[in-house]
Amino acid sequence: MSEKIRRIAHLDMDAFYASVELLRYPQLKGMPVVIGGGRRSEDDLLGRLNAAQPERAWTSADLARIPVDFFPRLADYTGRGVITTATYAARQFGVGSAMGLMKAAKLCPQAILLPVDFAQYRHYSRTFKAIVTEIAPLMEDRGVDEVYIDFTDVPGGQREGGRVLARLIQKAIADATGLTCSVGVAPNKLLAKMASEFNKPNGISIVFEADLQPKIWPLACRKINGIGPKADEKLQGLGVHTIGELAEKDLQWLIDHFGQRTGAWMHDVARGHDERPIVLESEPVSMSRETSFERDLHAVRDKAELGAMFTDLCERVADDLQRKGYVGKTIGIKLKYEDFKTVTRDQTLPSYTANAQTIRQIAGQCLKRVPLKQRLRLLGVRVGTLARADSVSASESPGEYLLPSRETSGPSVSGDSGTGQLF
DNA sequence: TCTGGGGTCCTAGGACCC
DNA sequence: TCTGGGGTCCTAGGACCC
User: Fold this and answer.
1) How many domains is chain A built from?
2) Chain A span 229-258 residues with beta carbon within 7 Å of strand B
3) Cis ω on the peptide bond leading into residue A67 (within 30° of 0)?
4) Strand B contact with A378 (CB < 7 A)
5) CA nearest A62: which of A107, A24, A90?
6) What is the pTM of this model?
7) For residue A274, is it within any domain?
8) A55, A140, A146, A305: which one is catalytic?
9) What's the CA–C1' distance between A415 and C12, in Å?
10) Is residue A243 part of a domain?
């Protein structure tokens, strides 16, 4: 009997949101479709159809029969917003995730634009993850459309380096949902993540230690999960473009340029080393709600509007905490100004809370510590330092903790005309 | 015609304690 | 009297990811 080797899979659903939409609207298959943008109502399409053809009485059972001509086009879109997901047909035109919708409309005006429907995506997310864990129980959740899976001890997990099991999981997901995914199997999470991108969509890619030099080293450093635009730019400036070039640099050189921790990490990952375990369960660290406005708002002129949204954000965070059974004691706010500069302020309470009024009060005090001369484009509320509601004692969490007076907490910032007193 | 929303982790300085 | 560490908590910002 041969020795088992560590086999880790990364599974990535293909164009997840867009593919889920295509299940509902199969008539759009093969067409460029983007998901994202506005706060359009779900019934918009049916509403417009029924306005045009009242005798037909379209219902939600008819979604697959809505004529393609009736779908909104990117060219018709005005306003803010970015693309969340684009179908492969749309990607041919150069549009992709995080691109502004207005820019995308220039590249592909005929693309169909659908609003996001998180409830639907969550449903399919739970479905595919349940299928994965039935076959391979050691799964790490990495968001709606991604998971890591430990193949090492699963029957079939060693055959052909994991290809047999990957194929089985792909088929089980496709049979149950009609959705495709791409899978990479490798000795660790780092390499599995890169491998899952090799054969998209609906692909499988198997990587062994020996593949490092031919398959990994030619790739751009940016392909490493954890090297983003900033680190990549710095590396480029130092003449390092590929992972192979990164691997040529010695440890001390990397530490000198990137610090002890990052330098040592880069030295490891360039050699394909990654010992991180599969994490089966994890507790949340913070919960937040934020919103970008349809137009930039001014703290004085739009005070009423801002105040109402602020209260609403606090209520939604409180509701999230209560629904999920958490309390927190660090309350914070986030502001984005019209020039995209972001500031945050937070304050830690002596006890835990999930109470909307308490959050609103403390967040309001945080807001007083921030300049409000410039117009704002985003406002957010965050609660951190979380604990499970059932794990904190009554003294740590007195139902509705309110500060006795405004003087007793936080630095005073009176006198500056650009701060405070607006909420 | 610019650039969402929800997260995690890291760094760095200051306060405070031992 | 002067000097020095280490450890933890809090706060602000930033990089990065999905």
Assistant:
1) 4
2) none
3) no
4) yes
5) A24
6) 0.91
7) no
8) A146
9) 22
10) yes
